[in-house]
Design a protein that fits this description.
With 582 residues, the chain is α/β, with parallel strands linked by helices. Among the domains are: 195 residues, 3-Layer(aba) Sandwich (Rossmann fold), CATH 3.40.50; 103 residues, GMP Synthetase, Chain A, domain 3, CATH 3.30.300. The chain is built from 19 helices and 27 strands. It has an 8-stranded mixed beta sheet with strand order 3-2-13-12-14-15-16-17, sandwiched between helices. Strands 5-4-6-7-8 form a 5-stranded parallel beta sheet, sandwiched between helices. Strands 18-22-21-20-19 form a 5-stranded antiparallel beta sheet. The termini are far apart.
Length: 582
């Protein structure tokens, strides 16, 4: 492996315009001195994995890669991945990529995507990835906002000519690199071998670099569920802090096999799979897009021990005994889930019936990281409903982020800090996993309060003995106000998800001339099931839900609209509801 550049906590790179940093120097010093950040860069962590187990399997392509890109899927050892990413770095360097350059990435989960990250980070360059389903509109906006000098993509993806789309965006001002078959003449192919001289020039360049753990390594993007995406720069230090925060709950070992179904372009893919794998080793199996037969076959073939699933998939697998009997899940030990309320009965079922622990994840690209781990929440029903309140008096949580993260709830109306159990407020937090601020030009304001806490936009309730738990209520923007009473869609969705006839559900508000808003439930019925509004209301009344929270309209749909990383697009559901249809 080419020599790693010399790392430092606060280095001369912070004075160079060519290298961007993420946090003020004094904060970096504090985090390093307290041990909240480690002095390791991502490239150093990679080299450590290569040195520790060079011939162990490191990574596998999606089983259906040939159908996606016409490239044959592979499995690589750590040594082979090192050699491959080094060749990519040499090719990128030969074609002008240097420290501080920002490179846009439009690739599916694959060895190529993973190796591209390591190649760019060897050069001190910045990766700005996006879901492979993005098209020219999204790609051009991100390339412009991030001032990307190049794009790395693939020749083809599911019949699309991605490299040609990238060339149209780059024009004459940027370079397009592409993997696989179908690479057009104007793009630089990345499947060609590089010479020994190219590799030597790379080694010479890398030896001369000065790198800080505060150097920007990625610019990820908010999901854009309600507005244009905002750029989120991250550095080695805050990514590694985030990774340890998740690893402390996942308990990955060098013998673990991780199946990653989320696009490895933001928090879900990075924190739940990539970073724990990089920190301790194991075998990372890539998957994309979510294809249930392929996903289940990968679990059986690779003897997967850890993976992630959305709540709807957890529910479906638990309730569909015929499907579950046709697949081999015995290797699974832990499954992470989040992004929507976890039905308590489902989490309990997975643990008691299948012997598989479900972890409750709550996170954001900006740096929110709350993890309901089995060691902290042995009761699966409690684990499904609550998350740890870091800093709660007299409580020691298993994740090291708990000791370094400050948390508070702030009343949305008064701005007063919530201290009474049962009170609700916006979650705000500060600590080593929180990002330093949005990419200039992509946000109208920064999400920090006067004390430097990140304002998450998420409403939580203070719960449990001495307020040791947090219960997610909903996004501030999603709260439905019916006749002056607040309704949290996530609460109702979590209750309705336990209905045997419901496979997936979303609750949104629609205009009402008298009450302001009412609730509409969009339901994807379970196979062979019929669902009525009366059924849903009866289900909620049996759980003694207040009458004003009951949905007053039902829409049956085949699927719910979601963005490329699985977040619900409520705006599309609201757009289908019109006052004159009531």
């Amino acid at each position: 492996m080419p020599e790693s550049p010399t790392p430092a906590g606060v280095s001369p790179s912070e004075e160079r315009a060519s290298v961007y940093v993420c946090h003020p120097a004094e904060k970096v010093r504090e985090y390093l001195e307290r041990g909240w950040w480690q002095p390791d860069t991502l490239t150093e962590l990679f080299q450590r994995r290569v040195d520790a187990a060079p011939d162990a399997p490191a990574i596998s392509d999606p089983a259906n890669l040939a159908a996606l890109t016409r490239a044959e899927p592979q499995t690589m050892s750590w040594r082979e991945l090192d050699e491959y990413s080094g060749g990519l770095a040499a090719a990128l360097y030969r074609n002008g990529i240097r420290q501080g350059d920002t490179v846009a990435i439009l690739l599916p989960n694959s060895i190529a995507l993973t190796a591209t990250y390591f190649a760019l980070w060897r050069l001190g360059a910045v990766a700005t990835p996006m879901p492979a389903s993005y098209r020219r509109h999204e790609l051009s906006g991100i390339v412009t906002a991030a001032e990307a000098t190049a794009i790395v993509t693939t020749g083809e993806l599911s019949g699309r000519e991605l490299a040609r789309e990238a060339l149209a965006v780059a024009g004459n001002e940027g370079t397009v690199f592409a993997f696989g078959p179908g690479v057009p003449d104007d793009a630089v192919p990345l499947d060609d071998s590089v010479s020994a001289a190219d590799r030597e020039r790379l080694r010479t360049y890398v030896r001369g670099l000065t790198v800080s753990v505060n150097d920007r390594v990625t610019i990820c993007w908010t999901s854009g569920t309600e507005a244009a995406p905002k750029g989120i720069p991250r550095c080695h230090g805050d990514w590694v802090a985030m990774g340890w925060g998740v690893q402390d709950g996942l308990h990955i070992t060098p013998e673990s096999v991780l199946l990653n179904p989320f696009p490895m372009v933001n928090m879900a893919g990075f924190a739940a799979s990539f970073l724990p794998w990089l920190l301790v080793g194991g075998h990372l199996v890539q998957h994309q897009p979510l294809d249930l037969p392929v996903f289940l076959a990968q679990i059986a073939r690779h003897r997967v021990t850890h993976t992630s699933m959305p709540p709807a998939l957890l529910t479906m697998l638990l309730h569909n005994e015929a499907l579950r009997a046709s697949v081999e899940l015995s290797s699974l030990r832990r499954v992470g889930s989040g992004g929507a309320p976890l039905p308590p009965s489902v989490v309990r079922g997975w643990q008691e019936e299948l012997g598989i622990e479900v972890l409750n994840f709550f996170g954001s690209n900006e740096g929110v990281c709350l993890l309901g781990a089995p060691i902290d929440f042995p009761d699966p029903v409690i684990r499904a409903q609550y998350l740890p309140r870091y800093g709660a008096p007299g409580v020691r949580w298993s994740t090291r982020l708990a000791e370094s993260t400050r948390v508070k709830l702030v009343d949305v109306g008064t701005g007063v800090t919530v201290t009474e159990v049962g009170g609700t407020g916006e979650l705000r937090l500060a600590g080593p996993a929180v990002f330093g601020g949005y990419l200039p030009g992509t946000a109208t304001s920064e999400p920090f309060d006067e004390e430097g806490f990140l304002c998450s936009g998420d409403v939580f309730e203070l719960c449990g003995v001495d307020g040791r738990y947090l219960r997610f209520v909903d996004r501030i923007k999603e709260i439905i106000i019916r006749g002056g009473m607040n309704i949290a869609p996530a609460e109702i969705e979590g209750l309705l998800a336990d209905h045997p006839g419901v496979a997936d559900v979303a609750v949104v508000g629609y205009p009402d001339p008298v009450l302001g808003e009412k609730c509409c439930a969009f339901v994807v019925p379970a196979p062979g099931q019929a669902v009525t509004l009366a059924d849903l209301i009866e289900h909620l009344r049996a759980r003694e839900v207040a009458s004003f929270k009951l949905p007053e309209r039902l829409e049956i749909v085949e699927t719910l609209p979601r963005n490329p990383v699985g977040k619900l697009l409520r705006r599309e559901l609201r757009a289908t509801l019109r006052t004159d249809e009531i």
